[in-house]
Amino acid sequence: MAVILALVSALTYGISDFLGGLFSRRASAWQISVCGQTSAALITWVSVLFIAGDPTARDLLLGAVAGLGSGFGIVFLYRGLAHGRMGVVAPVSAVGSALVPLTVGLGQGDRPSALAALGVACAFPAIWLVARPVDEPGTLEIASTGFLDGVLAGLGFGVLFAALGQVPEEAGFAPLAVANSAAIVAVVIIAVTLREPWVPRTRAAGRGVLLGPLGFVATGTFLLATHDGLLSIVSVIAALYPASTVLLAWLVLKERIGPGQAIGLGAAAVAVSLVALG
Q1: What pTM value is reported for the model?
Q2: 239/11 Cα distance (integer angstroms)
Q3: Which of 53, 118, 125, 225 is 20 to 30 Å apart from 137, CA to CA?
Q4: Contact between residue 232 and residue 107 where contact means Cβ atoms under 8 Å apart
Q5: Which phi and psi (to 5°) does residue 242 adopt?
Q6: The total number of structural domains that make up the chain
Q7: Domain that residue 119 falls in
Q8: 99 contacts 158 by C-beta, under 8 angstroms
Q9: What is the tens place of the pLDDT at every residue in 114-135?
């Protein structure tokens, strides 16, 4: 069940990224992000009324840390993409978002089976290959701003996954609501610092509210998955989200899937299958 929930999380994260990219063509990505995070926070707080829980102060603090990580990750992801370094930022951030919680999980005593460990090993090159655009050259300049932004974005998303993975089942969804709320604060603070327009003023920016339900499902299913499975496994499966973004771009926008991306999609399928069998 944990693998299925993690796959749902990856799918909805990928759909959200796809739609966010489309919406950002007509409005500031910062405005879209604020609308989406606000919508997700409102939906999650409403869900708290129906999903019983007894969170401790530690659980709520973990939620706040997760939200700050999410907002931090979004900020540097957008900054990197704005510099036109998608081929660096996307794969580095995706790998980083899996590596941080994997390290935390293993450090806390996670011991995946041999097949599951092999699946995790296959997932990392799959994430990298799928996330790289077709036209990007193969050489990376390690010192580039894009690489640094990708590392910082991956660190932020990795903190999101690692912190949510510490929230116990009995806490309910209140820590998740705190996380989505804290993400808004983080995005706004850093947007103001970087002097980016974040206040939604147009109907195009308002479309970002449609991302809220997707964000709620993505983070909610990830949280539930960590209750049934190992953080080191669940986080890596969830980090395969670029695969659904690439497939949607192919189906809807008719974008070409390059040879590397095709290999990455195949490797992702193998990784999920190995983890499920393990």
Answers
A1: 0.88
A2: 10
A3: 118
A4: no
A5: -60, -20
A6: 1
A7: 2-277
A8: yes
A9: 888 898 888 888 888 887 666 5
